[in-house]
Amino acid sequence: MAKAERQQRRAGGVGVVAGLVAVVCAGTAGCSGSGAAADDGRGGEAVATLRLAADRLVRAGSSKARTSMEMATGGTRVTIRGEGVYDYRRQLGELKVLLPQDPAGTSEHRPITELLAPGALFMKNRGAGVPADKWVRVETASLADGNLVTGGATDPFAAAELLRGARSATYVGETEVEGIAVRHYRGTADLTVAAKESSAGNRASLGAAAKGFATARVPFDVYLDEEGRIRKVRHRFSFVNGQQEGTVAVASTTLLSDFGVAVDVRLPDGDDIYAGKIAEG
Asked: pLDDT category, 108, cuts 50, 70, 90?
């Protein structure tokens, strides 16, 4: 229990969503989980296909990415959106993450720039006393959710590698995502299995999430194009609500497009990383 509490404190000190969840849930009757999809033990061919989805992205090289993270509680829905690019071979990405409007209906938040790297998250315009020209660096394995939720956007490659832990899946049918013909699959992944099967860059982070979430089972819907590349994936995470009893349900959606786009992500130098204390909230 003490270990879990320390993990939650670390996540709350640097997270974007973690503090927001606490505020949202504190003023309501609490947040509840969305439940898990039924695991019928079937769909072996579908499972095998989904476990290769991350490899298909590496073969594609890069893409544009749009993300959204939704929480619903007490009749209120909160959504955090992001947009950027990702290099799957180098496992480097850049997203501009936009926080939702404040309760008064005005938006005073500047977009947060996030750089995604193996084992690390860099944030600029983090606020809370951080100088405007400095970056905040976070070790993703130190976060209770492995940064699947904390940064307000799920790393696109981590979202794909989570499918390496697919335990059950069914083929739903053909449809379209933004005008592209896709095959829709629905199933449940296991974070523990995903961590073991993932690349070295995501292994520790997914392992932390497997221990930190309320359950290691993650229901998902994923849409693959004719080349087996992910065009859209939606995960439903569940983690313990520190404010009240129960769990918080978070739906994370990632949309990928423009495969092969040029990506130039440069990580900050050591002198540009903020070394001071980060205020919570």
From this structure: low
- Edge-first strand order for the sheet with 112-117 is 135-139, 120-124, 112-117, 92-98, 76-87, 62-73, 247-257, 230-240, 217-224, 180-190, 166-177
Structural domain total, the chain: 1
Question: Which secondary structure element, helix H or strand E, spans residue 50, and what is its range?
Answer: helix 44-51
**Model pLDDT for residues 140-184, shown as the tens digit of each residue:** 999 999 999 989 999 999 999 999 999 999 999 999 999 999 999
Query: Please, which residues have CB within 8 angstroms of residue 3's CB and are 6 or more apart in sequence?
Result: none
pTM (two decimals): 0.83
User: Higher pLDDT residue, 235 or 128?
Assistant: 235
Q: CB–CB of 7/1 below 8 Å? A: no
* 148 within some domain: yes
Using the structure block, give the residue that is written with the tokens 């405007």. Answer: 132
Give which of 274, 29, 48, 241 is closest to 149, Cα–Cα: 241
Answer whether residue 70 is part of any domain.
Answer: yes
Ranges of beta strands (E only) in the chain are: 62-73, 76-87, 92-98, 112-117, 120-124, 135-139, 166-177, 180-190, 217-224, 230-240, 247-257
Distance CA 224, CA 160 (A): 11
Count helices and strands in the chain by DSSP H and E runs:
7, 11
Residue 52's domain spans which residues? 2-261
Residue 246 belongs to domain with CATH number: 2.50.20.20
